[in-house]
């Protein structure tokens, strides 16, 4: 009897189980080589589908293929328990005292096998139970003896398998010894080992599910894996980048700013020979950090044989423009992958007939790479990066292993959510110490992550003479205008008018949408060309407004732009004057980056005011940042020699972040208030209460609560609703949803709809619902919320009061 792993639907071709297990083993081994643990990951690959050697599973597979209209319930036959149970019973000392294999190795690999069709199991959970150990005794009887016998007959004989396990143990011990050699303190070594094994389990799990799904897809699609020759690609990209930069330099007007940008870019290339590690790139705002960091990454990748370059960018509003810029300067359309919530897959079907076979393979691989980031250059978000490590969905964990042997550039790293700081730092430490990964923390306002309790160690700064560069790059003067009672809207309007008359254009950034709208209404009654930007507007609307603002600035028109902080990170605009409501010092610095950005004048003013009518009770990070900045401003007024006499100096920023993190010290480990604990503790196995509640503690060596941590983890709180709005093409999408036209591709439709959607909090959603300003369309698998015409204003965006001005239509 032939034992089958899969049956191809379109032609009935069978994939033999022994072939699938061996091919997944080989793919997993290749992934494990990045950490020096090919036999560890290979062990998971070899055993993951061992349970398919049961007669019951073979009957289930046959019935599912032969009765497609009435198949057996998916997952009704347990096949993922056998491999993990086999390892535990034969190599884990609590069950087999004669075993000399490291028991925690067996726990890591077994959990990956148990979980390969879902999430990693809790070793212990809040109820004091062990879902992991429960898998040793499944509720439904399984023919383990038959399964093990057939595995040794078809895949690997028992003697060879024992040697394979011993080799995996040696690799595991090497990691173990690597940690012990660096830490002499016993308690510190135990903590480090505990954290490392939790991350290592996730790496093994990632290697297994990617190898398994890749092999299954290749069998279904009758394809082989297309492998990039990254060394040649990066050489070509570097040459293309050099040519692009030369062309830019020839076409740019030489001034002090352009010279400094070129100098910092060259500095990055010179530092590319540094060892892999964690580095800061503190290029001042507007200093060209995207291309400077790319130059470092391309050269560094060639020197250290690194496979890919990953950009993590905080906001989807700027990720597309940065990805397009890199595609253009590198001439790398087929090699740059975007993976974020707003990306709409490009359709190349009309071009595929004219492609060479190699171009077609490259395109196909890029389309598939969205699941595992197997592309030379990847653009993603901080949300996606953190989900890779801490969200439970296997589609996220699948790509984790591709963070190894990479250069990861975190753009505007100061925007990391405060509750994720400890978790973020631990991922960087793991990637640096064990994965041959280089991390670049790229921002003008470094968040001083080395000063928190669970810190990182930065190996250096890529820009030489940073204080001198920062001083030479300084093109704004911060002018505090703080009032005891704060600024009222009418007083602020007078200041805006005064600066508009002096400077010709003004950008005002305030902390809440409400006060922005109030100032807009106040100024809109006057003879001023005024623009409004906020998160109440859909991304497509904001994009059009920004394009119009840039055109007006280029023409030298008198304009005022009112915005929330969304304009601060990565938006390339340059105003003659900026007025910023008091906020975190990093926000003040980012706001200053929108003023005199290209050195149009020697100096321009950035005024900091304290708005009297801003309500920040629901925006605690802004509120605390505001307090810390206010403290530093007053310190500088009383002691001008402090912090190099500069509000935005490196010492000022370090002092600010120390104060800011102190205010949130009980939250940086990601609190779970319902369980009176932190995700950091339960994920990395340092939580005492779960361990204490488990009655058979001696059975286990690892106590990580993987599933519980994942269930509570959200980078951005999920109490928001996405509303599709009738702006531009959004009207057509709404007509499709409410009409009879069939939607053929829901994935592309929903991705496109995100460009015309606005996210609102629950209280805003409830107000829209109560005012009958939204309709709900229920597809069964998801609900779509649609704004009515009078809910979306062409100037303000989404209005919960329903006072939108209706656009004029010509019929």
Helix content: 40-55%
Could you state the oligomeric state of the chains shown? single chain
Number of alpha- plus pi-helical segments: 30
The tally of beta strands, per DSSP, is: 23
What is the overall shape?
A: globular
Low-pLDDT sequence parts: 342-355, 803-811
Distance between the termini: 72 Å
| Main β-sheet description | 7 strands, parallel
Tell me about this structure:
The chain is α/β, with parallel strands linked by helices. The protein is 47% helix and 12% strand. It has 30 helices and 23 strands. The strands form 6 sheets. Strands 5-6-4-7-8-3-9 form a 7-stranded parallel sheet. It has a 6-stranded parallel sheet with strand order 10-15-14-11-13-12, sandwiched between helices. A 4-stranded mixed sheet has the order 19-18-21-20, sandwiched between helices. A hairpin with a 4-residue loop joins β16 (671-672) and β17 (677-678). α2 (38-47) packs across α8, α10 runs antiparallel to α12 (289-303) and α11 (256-270) runs parallel beside α12 (289-303).
Secondary-structure blueprint:
Layout: E1 4-7, E2 14-16, H1 17-32, H2 38-47, H3 55-66, H4 81-91, H5 103-114, H6 131-134, H7 144-154, H8 158-182, H9 186-221, H10 230-251, H11 256-270, E3 278-281, H12 289-303, E4 308-313, H13 316-330, E5 336-339, H14 357-368, E6 377-381, H15 382-390, H16 394-397, E7 406-411, H17 421-434, E8 438-442, E9 460-461, H18 466-473, E10 476-481, H19 489-503, E11 505-509, H20 513-524, E12 529-533, H21 539-554, E13 559-563, E14 577-581, H22 585-592, E15 604-609, H23 620-638, H24 650-663, E16 671-672, E17 677-678, H25 679-683, H26 688-693, H27 706-712, E18 720-724, H28 729-738, H29 746-753, E19 757-761, H30 762-770, E20 774-778, E21 783-787, E22 792-793, E23 797-798
Parallel strand pairs: 3-8, 3-9, 4-6, 4-7, 5-6, 7-8, 10-15, 11-13, 11-14, 12-13, 14-15, 18-21
Antiparallel strand pairs: 1-2, 16-17, 18-19, 20-21, 22-23
Helix pairs in contact: 1-2, 1-9, 2-5, 2-8, 2-9, 4-5, 5-9, 10-12, 11-12, 19-20, 23-24
